[in-house]
Amino acid sequence: xxxxxxxxxxxxxxxxxxxxxxxxxxxxxxxxxxxxxxxxxxxxxxxxxxxxxxxxxxxxxxxxxxxxxxxxxxxxxxxxxxxxxxxxxxxxxxxxxxxxxxxxxxxxxxxxxxxxxxxxxxxxxxxxxxxxxxxxxxxxxxxxxxxxxxxxxxxxxxxxxxxxxxxxxxxxxxxxxxxxxxxxxxxxxxxxxxxxxxxxxxxxxx
Length: 206
Description:
The chain is an alpha+beta fold. The chain has a single domain, classed as Electron Transport, Fmn-binding Protein, Chain A (Pnp Oxidase, Chain A). The protein has helices spanning 14-22, 62-65, 111-129, 142-149, 174-186, 190-199; strands at 24-31, 34-44, 50-56, 69-81, 94-108, 152-167.
């Protein structure tokens, strides 16, 4: 899908919010063996300038990623949009979706920074789980924890470009948007329908 400027959010913090809430990304990079992708939980720092993640040492990307240009993609809900939901006949089907692209150079983290990343990651998600007390690595045998962390490699990507696409039928009339929302919801895509209700009023570039 073409990232039309009409589908770039006006809210400066929307892309950041989605990255933090979804918290999982596909990491793409070129390697001598061809393009590769890895999937990993991510931690965005407070000023949204860096993205941290970790990969298994045996992952096809791990040995090539230090110092390489990488692309991280966080994807939200998506759904097919039927042309029959529009009033006019001269329409075609499309797809509504949420995708946040972040580009930058990745560098390998040392062991201390890797453990700090893991602590931050677990703290963020344990807060959502609501366990009392929350899980921490203090509950583990340190030797076992060390063995497990020895099987992964941490990375930090300094973000040089953000490319968010929030395609929610913003280029359609209010009546058509309402029909698309109803259709999307009826086909089982409630999360996307809710996003369209709350965020789809952004008609920048429409």
